[in-house]
TrEMBL record:
InterPro entries: GAF-like_dom_sf, HTH_MetabolicPath_Reg, Tscrpt_reg_IclR_C, Tscrpt_reg_IclR_N, WH-like_DNA-bd_sf, WH_DNA-bd_sf. It comes from Candidatus Chlorohelix allophototropha. It comes from the Bacteria. GO terms for biological process: negative regulation of DNA-templated transcription. GO terms for molecular function: DNA binding; DNA-binding transcription factor activity. May be an activator protein for the gylABX operon. This is Glycerol operon regulatory protein. Residues 18-80 form the HTH iclR-type domain. SMART domains: HTH_ICLR (SM00346).
């Protein structure tokens, strides 16, 4: 009597491992495709896996920094480590390569720290920086994530981060999912006031953080756009209020134009 073929435990283990890897990649790709924080059930439906499996794999991704969970809403989004890898943080990707000359020029010409940042879910992530050579200078560790609503670059993503028809809907979702906590006396904590600020930003095409994230620090930011005119990243400079705040209006607008031009040149290099 012929018995059934014996299973090879080693091959079975390999197949299980490969399947887990494939499912993990499916989840990472789905998080990136949503372009917004999502619920566990939404993600489960997207990748066609049961909720317990998705939750187990997500736990590992969160632990490694490839996914993140907003504990206030329970929603999931792309993690800072995945954003950094996608942007070529460790290997000099296209975005960093395109922006590096602008960062160096801004730090040299304006004399303040220059930053490159991208959006990750409802957070802003700094992916490159050139520091000022002044003794008193701003420093934010590359890979750090901060809220959108109280940063110059973050407000640009809120102002330009969606198609015009979807802006109001996406902003309302953001406001429902995120508390506008006061970081300083200048932080926008009223949703209506923030909406008015974002409308002003859309009209002028650049953004200020006037001590909204940290007292004594001012930031000026401009968007980097792709071929379709969508925001993909931001250039900004940050410095102490005692220096940037001391500029007259004409001089400050020269700083703004310098940053806008640097963002435009970066976009040209990125899209060429």
């Amino acid at each position: 009597m012929r018995g059934r073929p014996r299973k090879d435990p080693e091959n079975e283990g390999e197949r299980h491992t490969v399947q887990s890897v494939e499912r993990t990649f499916d989840i990472m790709e789905a998080l990136a495709e949503f372009k917004r924080p999502v619920t566990l059930s939404e993600l489960s439906a997207k990748v066609d896996l049961n909720i317990s499996t998705v939750h187990r794999l997500l736990s590992t991704l969160i632990e490694r920094g490839y996914a993140r969970q907003d504990h206030a809403t329970g929603r999931y989004s792309v993690g800072n480590r995945l954003v950094a890898l996608a942007s070529g943080l460790d290997g000099g990707g296209d975005l960093q390569s395109a922006a590096r000359p602008a960062l160096q020029q801004l730090a040299r010409v304006i004399g303040e720290t220059a930053n490159l940042s991208v959006r990750s879910g409802d957070q802003l992530v700094y992916i490159d920086q050139v520091q000022s050579d002044r003794l008193m200078r701003m420093f934010t560790r590359v890979g750090t994530s901060v809220p959108l609503y109280c940063t110059g670059s973050g407000k640009l993503f809120l102002a330009f981060g969606s198609e015009p028809a979807a802006l109001e809907r996406d902003l309302n979702r953001y406001l429902l999912s995120n508390r506008l906590e006061s970081r300083t006396p200048a932080t926008f904590t009223d949703p209506l006031a923030l909406k008015k600020e974002l409308q002003t930003i859309r009209e002028r095409g650049y953004s200020f953080d006037n001590e909204e994230m940290e007292e004594g620090v001012i930031c000026v930011a401009a968007p980097i756009l792709d071929r379709a005119g969508q925001i993909v990243a931001c250039l900004s400079i940050s410095g102490p209020t005692s220096r940037l705040g001391a500029h007259g209006h004409t001089e400050l607008m020269e700083v703004v134009e310098t940053i806008k031009h640097a963002a435009y040149e970066t976009a040209n290099r990125l899209n060429s």
